[in-house]
Design goal:
Chain lengths: ~700, ~90
């Protein structure tokens, strides 16, 4: 009886999914036809934004609920495949969809020794699922929990383990949600031309309608539909670009042919005299900043005096008001004090130094790790540092994947443990569909830029450069550095966040595809934001409530209502932080992986697999792991070191601060084991004394 | 609603019976595919069917290996459970 019911439920779902995919494709065809018929570009973007956000909001309204079982775990009846799709959407954030192909474009195989990345992200964000499947998710599902901190309550009891877990869940999810909301603002403002801040509000409306009303149940089905949107939005431009360059739409199996070509183009660019001229100019600029930095106060005073003098001259000549205003603006834009000047000029000097390197500072695309194992001692050192940091980053991303609460709770929603195991496999399958194509996209875009864009005239630059430059100059900047009116590779500076979004325009695809890609990016950011907000609000409400004798919280409708308002408040706070545009979003996200890894992973694994783990051990281990990670991040961060006047450096074994989990995770394991063993030895000793 | 929180039959609530052979084997495969191959990536530059092996493996091969690990684990464990193996744990 139960089985046939489940089967008919599933076939209803299959029908709905097919209908949805067909409907969405029909919508795309309609938009393509409308563009042909002359629909203005100014309308296409807003229509995509509005249509998709309305769709998600409608699912949210349809799935509204106040039943705790539905709100927290979607009634525990989601079939493995659909849970896999929802998990894939939940997992693939704005960072995966928007920034990853850009990061692969900029960093190639492994990035540099000071900024590891590239394929470490692909490996880390997929490999973590092996840990989820083999060690964690099925066991948590078997315990019929509602949140990740519930595990700590049930397994260890007491007050502190659960509270620490809740604090850890809030800490690492909050930074992550800020990054998603930043992505939402970026896309919405590009799609509709409104301001960044208003873009954030538009997108936030969609998130809130969904997660506020329906909790996990609505989020699950929204995420399934968002997965469909983001998969199509990724596959259509990649296949199109591959068809254009290689004559086949199957990008992931065909892009290898472009790798040797890129290597040849890179060699040609390194040899080219025009590129060398550009890099010499960057070198000069770097030296200029270095000269200023030798006496920043005097250099700043000189700059000020020069501008004051110019304003006086202009005034005396009775020059045009706009010229005077321009000089005034320059004066106002100068650093306010020597400390500010040191910070800004150091950054500018480092950037100029970086861009003075061959290929504008980009590593060679196919080269594994920077430096050279057979070169000079400095090159060998660089190679070792680059390889070590690649591995460290990969480790933190993998272990972080297996510890992030918003991902683990997704596996609570299946019907049973066996379904959870299948569901992890489905999730990784759906994620791999995109991740196998991402390196292909980066390679195709690099070829397109090196082959098509470099060498074109400054008078005929494509439109997208100017349009993206208007959204945020840090995303695209193109300047004729050597003044020959021809674009060199060293003159282009692209931000990682715009490469995917600009791919359709770069490849000369119709504008509808641009709208679709932006809708896909929005889907990725919204789906992750939904899951994260729910996790944070549950940690704040459910995981601080008093527990019953079995260690579980008595869930009730009051908790659901409180959770909803906590969610609203968290979303507002996150939006406020995102508006401030915190500078290094990708390193903040990586840092939150490190933090999650060192807080949760040792406690979860030992709690599951070692009967001897004690409550005191877990509390001490979580504090030690998280404390060490945060301390290392603060002590080794270059910005903070400069701020309190310490000499740069201070790295342990050359590991960069964002991969601090490399130290935190083993420390967590060690402390839990030692304290647990010690406590048991102590109590065994005591009981023996009592007996004697 | 919490009275419904009884355990599914045949499942130990918290502690596992430890690591069985399958789990250990798959963890080794996972570690070799990720950390092992990456460590020696610089020495694996030779072309295989026109692709630089190290780039292909890090970009795609490893992902396929991870997928295989997860699929094999789910398939084997779920079959054992259906067969009603007495020592079934998670």
């Amino acid at each position: 009886m139960k089985k046939t019911e489940a089967r008919s439920y599933e076939s209803r779902l299959h029908r709905a999914l097919l209908l949805f995919v067909a409907g969405f494709l029909a919508f795309l065809a309609l938009m393509a036809w409308a563009e042909q018929a002359g629909l203005s570009r100014a309308w296409i973007g807003p229509i995509f934004l509005f249509a998709t956000v309305m769709l998600y909001a409608m699912i949210g309204i349809w799935g509204r609920t106040t039943d705790p079982e539905e709100f927290y775990v979607a009634g525990r009846r989601i079939p493995p495949m659909y849970n896999g799709m929802a998990t894939a959407a939940d997992w693939m954030s704005a960072a995966s969809f928007i920034s990853l192909s850009g990061a692969l474009y900029l960093q190639g195989f492994a990035g540099t020794s000071t900024q590891p990345g590239g394929l470490a992200y692909v490996l880390g964000w997929t490999g973590g699922f092996c840990l989820v499947a083999l060690l964690i998710a099925p066991r948590l599902r078997a315990m019929r929990l509602y949140t990740v901190p519930d595990f700590f309550a049930v397994r260890f009891g007491g007050y502190w383990p659960r509270l620490l877990a809740a604090a850890g869940a809030v800490g690492c999810s909050f930074m992550y949600v800020v990054a998603q909301i930043y992505g939402i603002g970026l896309i919405a403002s590009r799609l509709t031309g409104v301001q960044f801040e208003i873009g954030i509000l538009l997108g936030l409306g969609g998130v809130l309608l969904c997660s506020f009303l329906g909790g996990m149940r609505a989020i699950t089905w929204t995420q399934v539909s968002q997965y469909v949107v983001l998969l199509l939005a990724f596959m259509i431009p990649v296949s199109w670009l591959a068809y254009k360059q290689l004559g086949t739409p199957l990008a992931p199996v065909a892009y290898g042919a472009q790798l040797p070509k890129i290597e040849r183009l890179e060699n040609a660019l390194i040899e080219s005299p025009a590129e060398q001229a550009v890099s010499a100019i960057h070198q000069e600029r770097a030296q200029e900043y270095a000269a200023r930095l030798r006496d920043p106060a005097a250099a700043l005073a000189r700059d000020r005096a020069r501008l004051d003098e110019r304003i006086r001259m202009l005034k005396a000549q009775g020059a045009d008001f706009s010229l005077i205003m321009q000089a005034r603006r320059e004066l106002a834009a100068l650093p306010r004090n020597p400390a500010d000047a040191i910070e800004r000029w150091t950054r500018a000097m480092n950037e100029a130094n970086e861009r003075a390197k061959p290929l504008g500072g980009l590593p060679r695309h196919g080269q594994a790790f920077a430096g050279d194992p057979d070169g000079s001692p400095a090159e060998q050192q660089e190679f070792k540092a680059s390889r070590l940091n690649f591995m460290a980053l990969m480790f933190c991303l993998m272990v972080g994947t297996a510890s992030l609460p918003h991902l683990l709770t997704r596996f609570y929603t299946t019907r049973g443990v066996a379904e959870t195991r299948s569901s992890v496999a489905w999730s990784l399958g759906f994620i791999a569909l995109l991740y196998l194509a991402t390196p292909a996209l980066a390679v195709l875009v690099k070829y397109e830029i090196m082959q098509g864009l470099v060498g074109s005239s400054f008078d005929a630059l494509p439109n997208w450069i100017a349009q993206w430059g208007r959204v945020d100059p840090s995303l695209v900047s193109v300047a004729d550095v050597n003044g020959d009116r021809i674009l060199q590779f060293g003159e282009i500076k692209l931000g990682a966040d715009m490469i995917m979004l600009a791919t359709p325009e770069l490849g000369g695809l119709p504008y509808v595809v641009s709208g679709l890609v932006a809708a896909g990016g929005l889907a990725a950011a919204l789906s992750t934001a939904d899951g994260l907000l729910l996790t944070i609000s549950n940690a704040l409400v459910h995981d601080t409530a008093p527990t019953g004798p079995d260690g579980m919280v008595r869930t009730s409708e009051n908790h659901v209502i409180l959770s909803k308002f906590a969610l609203l408040a968290t979303a507002m706070l996150a939006a406020f932080v995102a508006v401030l545009k915190p500078a290094e979003i990708i390193s903040l996200v990586t840092a939150s992986f490190s933090l999650a890894a060192s807080t949760f992973f040792p406690a979860l694994v030992l709690g599951i697999f070692w009967r001897g783990t004690t409550r005191r051990g877990v509390v001490a281990g979580m504090l030690a792991g998280a404390g060490l990670t945060v301390a290392y991040m603060l002590l080794a961060s270059p910005a903070l070191r400069a701020w309190w006047g310490a000499a740069p450096g201070g790295l342990w074994a050359g590991v960069l601060p964002m991969s601090a989990g490399v130290f935190g995770v083993p420390a967590g394991f060690a402390v839990i084991a030692l304290v647990s063993l010690g406590e048991r030895a102590f109590s065994a000793c005591e009981s023996r004394q009592e007996r004697s | 609603m919490d009275p419904a929180r009884q355990l599914d039959p045949g499942e130990t609530p918290v502690e596992a019976r430890g690591f069985d052979g399958l789990r250990v084997l798959l963890l080794v495969v996972w570690a070799v595919a990720s950390f092992g191959v990456s460590w020696f990536a610089r020495d694996l530059q030779h072309l295989v069917a026109g692709w630089p092996f190290n780039f292909w493996f890090a970009a795609q091969g490893a992902v396929l290996v991870f997928l295989a690990v997860v699929v094999v684990y789910a398939a084997v464990k779920n079959r054992r459970k259906r067969a009603g193996a007495a020592h079934e744990e998670d």
